[in-house]
Amino acid sequence: MNEFLFYSLCVSEDIKNSLDDLGMQTKSFSSQEDLLSALVKQRCTFIVFHTEIGIDEIKNTLKLIENKNLSSDIFSLVLSDLEDNEALSLELKDFNVVSIFTYSNWKYQLIHFLKIFNPNKLNFLPNDLEYENRMDPLTDVLNWQSAPKIFDSLINDYEISSRPFSLIMFQIDDFKDVIDEFGKDIGDEVLVSLSNIVQQNIRQYDVVLRVDTDTFAIFLSGANLEISRSKAESFRNEIFMKGHGFDKVKVCASFSVIEYEKGESLHGLSTKAKTLMLQAHQKGGDTVVSS
Question: Under CATH, what is the fold of the domain 5-135?
């Protein structure tokens, strides 16, 4: 990750220190003028903003960068402590902002963002709509469109070092009933809550993805079936115990766990995982089925 150069504008000391701890090459600036002057002398890969400086300040800075024709090969990241990141993404849609990270777990999101970000290998262009669609704006995890690249990376590790990996897939039990009874807003809160529970309980080199409305997947690197099943049980228990945190909504989920076998395709692996997940539902939900 140290191949990237980061500039940051007016971010707090703990963020600067965290970027340094992650091995990032980082230069911090206290004003727009200093940042722009630095960009003229030396281009960076990313500019990091925090919503603490205000959305207008972020937009004004991005406009200045565009007006000086400095934005073509520079990507912006926003660390957000706002409640509505979907609204924020609409505010910034006209600028070269490639991702918005939730402040509570921004380090995890940044690490996995950089795992899939490679302008040369991915033929990534700043305005590539395919890339913009790789992040789920509600839950701040990757969506299933990112799965092939993650799968290929895990396959590469497996072929070089026989490093095992597994896929966990889980679906919220009776999620439609939650929507019907409590409404879409509560449903969205449930999705965010469960996503946060999972993200806070995985290793930095594991990856969470949103598969569809109420289904998530987790790729566990270096984990065989036994380890992965134990992890799925832990997730299941955490969701059952904490759930949404709203007494009226009972939240639990059905899990499937499957370890990769040599020669298997992503489609084959995910299809098996969905079949096992269906079996978990048929057993009454709130359970883990593995194979």
Answer: Rossmann fold (3.40.50)
